[in-house]
Amino acid sequence: MSDHPSESSGLKCGVLWASGISAVLMVLGYYFVASERTTLGSAIFIAVPFVAGLTIGFLVNNIKHIALSGLGGCVFAMSFLLVMGLEGIFCALMAAPLAVAAMIVSGLLVYVLKIIFKKDEFNSGKHLTILLLLSPLLVAAVDKAEEPRRSSPATATISDGILVDATIEQAWEALGRFDSMTGSKPFLLKAGALPVPHRCTLEGEGKGSVRTCYFDKGTITQKVTAWQKPSRMEFEITGDTLPGNQWLTFSKAGYELTEEAGKTRVIRHTTIESRLWPRWYWAPIERLGVRSEHDFVLQSLDQKLRLAKRD
Question: Which of 81, 106, 185, 235 could form a disulfide with 189 if both were Cys (CB 3.0 to 4.6 A apart)?
Answer without folding.
Answer: 185
